[in-house]
């Protein structure tokens, strides 16, 4: 699996552990979060530190996850750099998502 999960201070931290996030991983990615929310995990961090390439279908999947979490909880992204950060800026998704530098910052944001 290309996602790793751990709990930090009551927050579910999910790390995408591969450099390429593209259409081939979208279905499993979305299902992982549907299952997490169904299991009651409502404070979520998505760590994109390892991701060096992200296509539009992957961005769409992250948007779908935000919709899945919806009013039931919160999603904070962290670790988006380089091309990945540019994708969020170019599509103005940086205005839709809370994006911070590190997992520690994301956990702090959710616990504040």
TrEMBL record:
Annotated ranges, domain STAS: 21-110
One matching Pfam family: STAS
PROSITE patterns: STAS
Gene Ontology molecular function, alphabetical: anti-sigma factor antagonist activity
Family: Belongs to the anti-sigma-factor antagonist family.
PANTHER family: ANTI-SIGMA FACTOR ANTAGONIST TM_1081-RELATED, ANTI-SIGMA FACTOR ANTAGONIST TM_1081-RELATED-RELATED
Protein name: Anti-sigma factor antagonist
Record organism: Pseudomethylobacillus aquaticus
Organism classification: Bacteria, Pseudomonadati, Pseudomonadota, Betaproteobacteria, Nitrosomonadales
């Amino acid at each position: 699996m290309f996602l790793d999960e751990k709990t930090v201070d009551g927050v579910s931290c999910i790390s995408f552990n591969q450099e390429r996030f593209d259409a081939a991983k979208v279905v499993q990615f979305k299902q992982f979060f549907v299952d997490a929310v169904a299991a009651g995990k409502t404070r979520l961090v998505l760590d994109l530190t390892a991701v060096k390439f992200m296509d539009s279908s992957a961005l769409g999947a992250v948007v779908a996850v935000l919709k899945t979490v919806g009013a039931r909880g919160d999603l904070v992204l962290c670790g988006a750099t380089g091309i990945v950060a540019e994708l969020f800026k170019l599509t103005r998704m940086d205005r839709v998502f809370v994006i911070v530098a590190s997992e520690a910052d994301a956990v702090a944001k959710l616990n504040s």
